[in-house]
Design goal:
11 helices, single chain, alpha+beta
Length: about 300
């Protein structure tokens, strides 16, 4: 990636003082012509690089230049370091390990003794890490991948997808991609992916962004359903769970300690699965159809345990 190479060139010049274009070319495995273009890009961005002619010449940074002081503060560097460490821990990506090593070179170990801010994403399972790595390399090299996926209703399908990005939301990893089975953008939860396989097929990235995913989600669900409003009443004992799982504008606190929540769902099954997790701490107030469905669901669960 060009941005990583530009950053890498700057780091090398800070620590090795002077390097020839041929050395940089071998280090980054690109042509010398590419290095010349990169040096021009850095110069236009305000990085003071000197070009020295002759046998002992090469490129070096102007004396007194320090990337961490002039362009990035210590807090900036620590934020980058902690974020990269967390992503490396969660994904196992070797590219992140390489970039983290370059950032570490810019940080004076003695300067971080008084800093106590830590950013940590818990480690993903081996299978999720494998999926992340396959999808990441698919995005980097524009290769179609084949997945076995379990949808919300428990149905397993084989899909060929063109991954656009990977993201973390509510402690879960997702990828959004163009699905060649459905012929539209889809979001796939990585814990529901059973297998990922590389293919020999390449794709040209389609002109979509995350905003297109958000627009799709806000306008309709996977089954083109219109969202419906649910009103819930929680006991005081559920307050912590309510704060954890609902947005501020969905919550209303009452003087007696009870809590009202107004929430939109796209399907009855989605609402039931969520609401039942609160056990006897919640009561459905609206709509009546959902109340009846909830009661029937409880009856069905009781019947499972009848002899």
């Amino acid at each position: 990636m060009k941005i990583e190479r530009l950053f890498g060139i700057t780091v090398l010049l800070i620590h090795r003082k002077r390097m020839k274009a041929a050395e940089l070319s071998r280090y980054f495995e690109v042509s010398e012509r590419t290095i010349y273009r990169d040096i021009n890009s850095l110069s236009r961005a305000g990085i003071p690089i000197l070009s020295l002619p002759g046998q002992e010449g090469g490129y070096e940074l102007m004396e007194g230049f320090r990337l961490d002081k002039k362009y990035l503060t210590l807090d900036d560097l620590l934020s980058i370091q902690w974020a990269l460490k967390s992503v490396e821990n969660a994904t196992g990506l070797k590219d992140i390990e390489s970039l983290l090593a370059k950032v570490n070179q810019l940080i004076d170990p003695e300067s971080i003794q008084d800093h106590c801010v830590h950013f940590q994403i818990s480690q993903s399972s081996d299978l999720t890490q494998h999926h992340i790595q396959v999808i990441y390399h698919s995005i980097q090299h524009s290769r179609v991948i084949r997945i076995r996926y379990v949808d919300y209703n428990g149905n397993e399908t084989e899909r060929y997808i063109e991954p656009m990005a990977i993201f973390l939301k509510d402690y879960n990893w997702y990828t959004w991609a163009y699905c060649l089975l459905r012929h539209e953008l889809r979001v796939f939860k990585l814990t529901r992916i059973i297998e990922t396989h590389n293919t020999d097929r390449y794709f040209t990235r389609r002109p979509y962004t995350m905003e297109d995913i958000d627009a799709k989600k806000n306008g309709k669900s996977e089954n083109n359903a219109i969202p419906f409003t649910v009103r819930l009443q929680f006991s005081q004992e559920a307050r912590a769970q309510v704060l954890d799982n609902f947005k501020e504008d969905e919550i209303m606190n009452h003087p007696d300690g009870t809590i009202s929540v107004t929430k939109e769902y796209y399907t009855i099954d989605q609402a039931l699965t969520h609401i039942i997790s609160y056990r006897n701490k919640v009561r459905i107030m609206h709509p009546k159809e959902l109340i009846h469905k909830f009661i029937n669901c409880l009856d069905d669960m009781k019947n499972i345990y009848k002899e």
